[in-house]
Design a protein that fits this description.
The protein is of the alpha+beta class and about 120 residues long. Helices cover about 40% and strands about 40% of the residues. The protein is built from two helices and five strands. A five-stranded antiparallel sheet has the order 1-2-3-5-4, with helices on one face. A hairpin with a 2-residue loop joins strand 1 and strand 2. The protein is elongated and about 60 Å long. It starts with a helix and ends with a strand.
């Protein structure tokens, strides 16, 4: 169970670390009780289904690296702010593709790639 000071420290670590977008990549979070959900968003442009598959494979690797680096940074920042170690256990990890624009007149299609990581923190 977190104390009020620890919740505040974790919130400060998350606000500094997440919620900023770079180019077409975006990372955000939700913190509810002892559950922390990290979300990675990216825009994908493709013409053929095969191109989409290769980009999704690449984005899975990128999102896993970003999640790993982000969790390390959150743990380090929390330890510095709260003088205790943040324990994290992964509950789920998944991803989705959402078509945004696809017409028969244009070969160029646009989709959102989203990856989710749900963690239990204590």
């Amino acid at each position: 169970m977190f104390t009020v000071e620890e919740v505040r420290a974790l919130g400060n670590c998350l606000n500094i670390t997440w919620g900023k977008s770079v180019d077409n990549l975006k990372l955000s979070h939700k913190f509810n009780g002892d559950l922390l959900e990290l979300r990675f968003d990216s825009i994908v442009h493709f013409a053929a289904e095969q191109a989409l598959r290769s980009q999704v494979t690449n984005l899975r690797e990128i999102s896993n690296d970003i999640f790993t680096d982000g969790v390390k940074k959150i743990k380090a920042d929390f330890k510095e702010a709260a003088d205790r170690t943040l324990k994290v256990s992964e509950l789920s990890r998944n991803d989705t593709i959402e078509m945004v624009q696809a017409t028969s007149n244009s070969p160029r299609k646009i989709a959102y790639y989203r990856a989710f990581l749900t963690l239990q923190v204590s």
